[in-house]
Specification:
heterotrimer; B: 272 residues; alpha/beta; Rossmann fold; globular; C: 328 residues; mainly alpha; ABC transporter involved in vitamin B12 uptake, BtuC; 14 helices
Chain lengths: 358, 272, 328
């Protein structure tokens, strides 16, 4: 009943271009923002932050980044894990090399470095397409993980080969290290996610977003109507790399605190983020959120129900998780290639007409 | 500079200017196959220029040469009086040459509005950072270009479908949206590759009207390929006739109609 | 003759034999890709699953015993029989044929006409599913597989080369047998594709689906057949690797080794898969031998990929592909 656009007329093109053209959507968005910034921080404890909120926020950033590349620009990448590792190791080197600089900048610069590396591995996309490119990005995945594993400079010659996040603070509030408060870590990541999601939204609704989608839908035609394929693809790799790099940096510095590259940023991480955007919805910012939430919650839920509730062994729950995720991917690709975002859109269409569908 | 010394006025009162594009001795080969053999012709400013010929005559290849998708092995292309070096298709588009495609090449995942907005790419200058911030330059630019696009939407009478994803549209409307996307670029030369292929009589009449209106109102130079002889003869000011990659006729519709080589190519001739 | 040269030769031979196995795995990909345009990422997991099933059947394990025990509180695990390898292999082939039928029936029949990249992502999903399914069915412990293949150093080669160079080459009997079997399998697959009725139908489908349909070839049958064949190839690869280092998760990673082989050789070319496999096998062993020590070792993880990537940048159509002409 509330969900109406009737009477909500737009009189300028500016109004027509806004992110949430329907009033109800707009108010709900304000409500979500209010809850996320002003309510949740007071309610959460360590368990909630570490099990759900931090992974959700950070994976959402990575998923938006990958969605820009795969969902908007149509260049499938299986190197997300490797690129997250670049962000993490760049952040580590910056944190230990320049401790006097604000952590905030460390993370931004880590994103920039990852963007550069991502562009480097994206260059072949000008010559090769489709799953040739997908397989080629695996080169990035394996090479980068190997690099961080084998070249001691990257982990400051530590005996364990691990990198550990030193304690850093912002406005005298500890953000990283074992003494950081749950709410501080949460807010720090939330700010990054909010700003980056807005940027992603702005980029995808404007000129550059249209050039990406043109390349995705029909690259030859796009070039003939005036899209410079080099610029479009490289910018997609750069923006995507920046997002993925920031998420990698946060994953290491704020969330995990200690990282062994092969374990944390292996090829399974690449697939996990890819699955998030397939389930959430290719070519949708909202879908990136939905997919990240879904795949963060699913294992927690399975574990609580099967292990906690029914008393099954942990490994059994893990196998079942693999089976379910794999089946879900196939089901979504068959039944709803645009993922949860499309289901949500359809539900909204229905709701708009309800209760008079005819 | 354009040489306008030999411009003239047509019977229906339109001014045809000097030569805006000239093809000189173009030869295009794919491996051993010669698609275009030593063809020369020109396109004048403000005219409707047709390229006709039987299947496989090399018409589409010719259009692809003009739009820079193929670079010919021999011959020169002069554009606005200057020799055009070999360039990428997108650079050609930036010079003001827009086109439509024989098999519709719209971006199926985007809405009609977004498709037409891509046509205005070369008029939009905001950088990556301006767009990331959106407020200010990027938004102003978006709104300004949206106004231009809305005019074209009005002109082609597709207001009601502007937010529909292109994939859902019927064939005839897709053709119209493609024309809109090409027009949005405000091109100096508009290339139409079989704009009426697969249409019924009414749709053909609509499309003919749009083509004439575009030429009339915006003064756009148009080069088109078409199979329907009736349409071509009615629409165009001058016609190039191709057969087996060679030019066999060039002139006004009346001249071409009475050209013996053209009649032979179309009606067949006994080789004895 | 310098020592490096002699060691290098030994590495070269080992690389060649590894290459034949890569070619074998790659062949499984080529089969499916040629017939259906599906790039089957799950090929490696299929090898793992086939090997697990073989062990499970031979040892008489109860399928899903962990799951059953967890749900019903029972303690079942073995039927208490031991089957000879031949029966085990036959049963496993039957299981793989059933798997092929299911894949066709429940997944790819619903994805006909989709873009290749969507199909590719579906096979990644399939790989995850099959991995979870296999672990649930047979347990995720490392299993020993012994179907009676010879193992250990080949003394004949060791002594002969010692006689020639004063240094005996270490060549594993298992590798030798694997190479011979792989080579035989490759040859018989080529003969099958060239000279049998089903093989011709398969090539017809690969060429043009519509045309094949119109002359009365059942697409469904051909697709189930190639998936079964790919399952068989996976079983053979699974036996080789499983015998060598146990049936465990890492076995599924051999698929990742086959991907660069395919990029190098082209996805549709059987000779390409063989040559690509040999180049990568030899290339990565030689690179590790010559350059590895300088950069910290374990270059085998990425060498094949980087090689294939660099190669593709200069020749996007692969070794044996035709030049791509783009059209509008």
């Amino acid at each position: 009943m509330f969900y109406r656009e009737a009477g909500d007329f737009k009189t300028t093109y500016k109004d027509d271009n806004q992110t949430f053209p329907i009033k109800f959507d707009r108010y709900r968005y304000y409500a979500v923002m209010f809850a996320a910034f002003a309510v949740i921080p007071f309610l959460i404890n360590d368990y909630w932050v570490n099990a759900i909120f931090l992974p959700f926020l950070i994976y959402a950033i990575a998923a938006i980044g990958l969605n820009i590349l795969v969902g908007y620009c149509g260049q499938v990448s299986l190197g997300t894990g490797g690129f997250m590792a670049v962000g993490a190791y760049a952040c580590y080197k910056l944190m230990t090399g320049f401790p006097e600089i604000n952590l905030f900048f460390h993370i931004i610069i880590s994103g920039g470095i990852t963007a550069f590396v991502c562009v480097l591995f994206g260059l072949p996309s000008l010559r090769i397409k489709g799953f040739y490119l997908a397989v080629a990005t695996l080169a990035a995945q394996f090479f980068l993980v190997w690099l961080f594993n084998r070249v001691p400079w990257f982990y400051n010659y530590s005996a364990s080969g691990q990198i550990n996040s030193p304690e850093r603070s912002l406005f005298d509030i500890t953000i990283t290290g074992p003494n950081a408060d749950a709410w501080a870590k949460y807010l720090f990541c939330l700010v990054f996610l909010t700003v980056l999601a807005l940027i992603a939204r702005n980029l995808t609704r404007g000129t550059i977003g249209r050039t990406w989608m043109a390349i995705r839908d029909m690259d030859i035609a796009a070039e003939i109507i005036g899209v410079n394929p080099l610029k479009a693809k490289i910018s997609a790799f750069a923006v995507s790399g920046f997002f993925v790099g920031v998420s990698g940096a946060l994953f290491f510095s704020v969330y995990l605190g200690a990282v062994e590259v092969g374990e944390v940023f292996g090829i399974n991480k690449s697939f996990l983020v890819l699955f998030m955007i397939i389930i959430g919805g290719l070519g949708s910012i909202f879908g990136s959120f939905a997919g990240a939430a879904f795949l963060v919650l699913l294992p927690v839920l399975l574990k609580n129900v099967l292990v906690g509730g029914l008393g099954w062994p942990t490994d059994l729950a893990a196998h079942l998780e693999f089976l379910i995720i794999g089946a879900l991917i196939v089901i979504f690709l068959i039944a709803e290639p645009h993922g949860l975002a499309q289901l949500w859109r359809v539900a909204k269409e229905k709701l708009r007409l309800w209760p008079f569908p005819h | 500079m354009l040489d306008t010394s030999d411009s003239y006025v047509t019977e229906d009162g339109r001014t045809i200017g000097g030569v805006v594009m000239e093809m000189k001795n173009i030869t295009l080969r794919f491996g051993g196959v010669v698609a275009i053999k030593d063809i020369s012709f020109d396109i004048r400013e403000g005219e409707i220029r047709a390229i006709i010929g039987p299947n496989g005559a090399g018409k589409s290849s010719m259009l692809n040469v003009i739009s820079g998708f193929y670079n010919p092995q021999e011959g020169d292309v002069y554009y606005k009086g200057a020799l055009r070096p070999p360039m990428k298709p997108y650079q050609v588009a930036q010079q003001g040459i827009a086109r439509t495609f024989q098999n519709i090449a719209l971006f199926e995942g985007m809405t009609v509005l977004d498709n037409i907005m891509t046509g205005r790419l070369n008029h939009m200058k905001a950088g990556l950072f301006a767009q990331a911030i959106w407020k200010g330059k990027a938004e102003a630019e978006e709104v300004a270009n949206r106004e231009v696009v809305e005019k074209i939407i009005d002109f082609l009478e597709i207001q009601s479908i502007r937010k529909t994803p292109v994939g859902r549209l019927p064939y005839g409307l897709k053709k119209r949206v493609e024309l809109a996307r090409a027009l949005a670029a405000e091109p100096s030369i508009l290339l139409l590759d079989e704009p009426m292929a697969g249409m019924n009589v009414e749709e053909k009449e609509d499309m003919s009207r749009f083509i004439l209106d575009v030429n009339d109102e915006f003064g756009t130079t148009i080069a088109l390929i078409e199979h329907d002889m009736g349409v071509v003869m009615d629409l165009s000011d001058r016609v190039v006739v191709m057969d087996y990659g060679k030019k066999i006729g060039d002139g006004t519709p009346d001249e071409v109609r009475s050209n013996q080589a053209v009649i032979d190519a179309y009606l067949g001739v006994s080789h004895d | 003759m310098s020592d490096t040269f002699i060691f290098g030769m030994e590495v070269f031979l080992n690389g060649l034999m590894a290459g034949v196995l890569y070619a074998l795995v790659a062949l499984g990909f080529v089969l499916i890709y040629k017939a259906s345009g599906i790039f089957n990422y799950a090929q490696g997991v299929m090898a793992l699953f086939a090997a697990m099933t073989l062990v499970g059947i031979m040892e008489g394990r109860v399928p899903f015993s962990h799951l059953i025990n967890a749900i019903f509180g029972t303690h079942i695990h073995h039927f208490g029989w031991h089957l000879p390898a031949v029966f085990g292999i036959l049963f496993t082939v039957a299981v793989m044929a059933g798997f092929a039928w299911c894949v066709q029936k429940f997944i790819f029949r619903h994805l006909v006409g989709q873009e290749p990249i969507i199909l590719f992502m579906a096979t990644i999903g399939l790989a995850y599913f099959l991995e979870g399914f296999g672990d649930l069915m047979w347990g995720s412990d490392i299993k020993k597989l012994d179907v009676g293949l010879p193992q250990g150093i080949n003394l004949l080669i060791d002594e002969t080369t010692f006689g020639w160079f004063g240094y005996g080459f270490f060549i594993d009997n298992l590798d030798l047998v694997a190479t011979v079997i792989a080579a035989l399998l490759v040859i018989s697959l080529i003969i099958f594709a060239q000279y049998t009725k089903q093989g011709r139908a398969m090539r017809a489908v690969a060429d043009d689906h519509q045309a094949a349909l119109s002359v009365g070839i059942s697409l469904n049958f051909i697709w189930v057949m190639v998936w079964t064949l790919a399952g068989f190839v996976a079983l053979v690869a699974g036996i080789m690797w499983g015998t060598k280092s146990g049936v465990q998760f890492s076995l599924s990673l051999i698929a990742l080794k086959a991907l660069p082989v395919l990029m190098l050789g082209g996805f549709t070319s059987i000779p390409g898969a063989i040559v690509g496999g040999l180049i990568i096998g030899v290339g990565e062993k030689m690179f590790e031998f010559l350059v590895g020590p300088l950069v910290g070792g374990a270059t085998e993880n990425w060498f094949a990929y980087v090689l294939a990537l660099l190669f593709l940048v200069f020749r996007p159509q692969g070794l044996f592909g035709e030049k791509i002409i783009e059209r509008v």
